[in-house]
Amino acid sequence: MHSIKHLIKLAPFLKILGIILGLTIFVGCKSSKLSKTITKSISTAFYDNQFTGIMIYDPETKDTVYKHQAEKYFTPASNTKIITLFSALTLLKDSIPAFYYHASNDTLQLRGIGDPSFLHPYFKDSTALQMAKGYKHVSILRNTFTDDKFGPGWAWEDYDTYFSPERSSFPMYGNVVSISNTNKLEVSPNYFKDSVFQKTDKINRLYNENIFFYDTTSTRAREIPIVLDSLTTQNLWSDLLPGKVSFSHQQFNSTPEIAYSIPSDSLYTRMMHLSDNFLAEQMLVLASSTITDTLNTTLLRNYILEHHLNDLKQKPRWVDGSGLSRYNLFSPLSFVQILNKLYTTIPRERLFHFFPAGGQSGTLKNSYAGQTEPYIYAKSGSVGNNYSLSGFLLTASGKTLIFSFMNNHYTTPTSEVKKHMQNIFEHLRDTY
Questions:
Q1: Membrane-crossing residues (predicted)?
Q2: Last residue of a domain, one of 269, 288, 307
Q3: Cα 181–183–184 angle (5° rounding)?
């Protein structure tokens, strides 16, 4: 009799336990069915001649929803910009540090720290110029910038393409010449106007000289990287401030102050949405200024990996900020771990704003569109025969999943790779 009364008392709890066990079994079956569907999809002949890695993670339950070769290394291309964004968000403030300065009587000393927004074709920041106009003498101090102008493993034949500007300590004009021909030929900076000629060959600029070529019958605007030798830099500054500017290897006369330019989020958003290589590279230069007096992105990358990403299960080979280099190697699991750190520390609305939205913005404007609104917020990465996408997927049930889907060494059109990926994404959206 005692045992029956005991069971009666426990009945409500047993009912709840039954519901919980039933739910667990249901969720388990659901996940198992989902895994079988994805596995079946990537087991088709389409994937036979490429290398594929997938990691899908539920940050709410902390469960791995699906993984396939998630701990293998892949060429990430512009997915590398995710770790660049992480670095900038970790080390930089709400506004971008523009330069160090010290003013004394009629002389202003300036030293660059990598801010890419100064006179940039899009940002058009003029903080340094406006400050300098108020002084009789302006001394630009040579910086301890120890990086090469190009990153390791960058393709040399890209020297004249818009996506491969040189890296520098005090960028100007985005380190490119902007040429357009809407009503008349316009060149910015104007200093190079007499260095632009009718295009007769495929190249946009001589290999190591600031002689530019443009199809003057075209109305399409074009950006061509500048060769940033010391003489060119001096001439660009002198063109802005005639008779005022000198260059020096000396140090500041006393402790300098820091001037700030644009809101940091505006820089991060444009870098991620347009997959802008120049902005990504300069963001690492900027971030390095917060940990050392030497502008060195190798020191910065090592610092981030050792102090902020030392729990990654596969330490990546990380060599640049943009992903231009094929030397970069990351696993899908590493990207999911980095994205999860961002997801748990950055407010959701702000974080998602950095990433292109499927069917709506940036590099995903024409891909992965939702039925009524975006369901994917992610960074793509594309370089010959490689395409990856890593970010956040919103399911119809209200869940947020973190994913990384990496494809290397395929010979089929990238458009076909995207179609197969989209089938999996939509199945995840509708069934998880």
A1: 7-28
A2: 288
A3: 60
Q: How far apart are CA 369 and CA 218, in angstroms?
A: 33
Quick one: which of 82, 86, 130, 91 has its CA closest to 110? 130
For tokens 């100007």, the residue is 172
Q: Which of 332, 342, 301, 337 is nearest to 318 (CA)?
A: 301
Q: Is 21 helix (H, G, I), strand (E, B) or coil?
A: helix
Please, what is the Cα angle at 324 between 180 and 49, to 5 degrees? 120
In this structure, the answer to whether residues 409 and 358 fall within a common structural domain is yes
The full 3-state SS of 311-331, as one line of letters, equals CCCCCCECCCCCCCCCCCEEC
Query: How far is the CA of 209 from the CAs of 160, 196, 199, 228, in angstroms?
Result: 11, 12, 16, 9
Q: Residue 29: its pLDDT value, please?
A: 60
- Spatial distance between the Cα atoms of 271 and 281, rounded to a whole number of angstroms: 10
- pLDDT score recorded for residue 143: 73
What whole-number distance in Å separates Cα of residue 181 and Cα of residue 213? 13
Q: Under a CB-based contact definition with an 8 Å cutoff, are residues 376 and 358 in contact?
A: yes
Tokens of 148: 């090469």
Does 116 lie in the same domain as 62?
no
Q: Which helix (DSSP H) or strand (DSSP E) does residue 110 occupy?
A: strand 107-112
Q: Does residue 190 form part of some domain? A: yes
* Model pLDDT, residue 159: 96
Phi, psi angles (nearest 5°) of residue 107: -120, 135
Task: Compute the Cα dihedral for 156, 382, 275, 406 and give only its sign.
Answer: negative
CB 175 within 8 A of CB 225: yes
* Separation of alpha carbons 395 and 376, rounded Å: 9
**Single pTM value for the model:** 0.92
Amino acid identity, position 268: Y
Q: Which residues of the chain have pLDDT under 50?
A: 1-2, 4, 7-8, 14-15, 17-27
Residues 65 and 165 in one domain: no
pLDDT tens across 272-283, in order?
A: 999 999 999 999
- Please name which of 137, 138, 158 lies closest in space to residue 149, comparing C-alpha atoms: 158
Final residue before a domain boundary, out of 273, 288, 303: 288
By C-alpha distance, which of 211, 212, 218 is closest to 181? 218
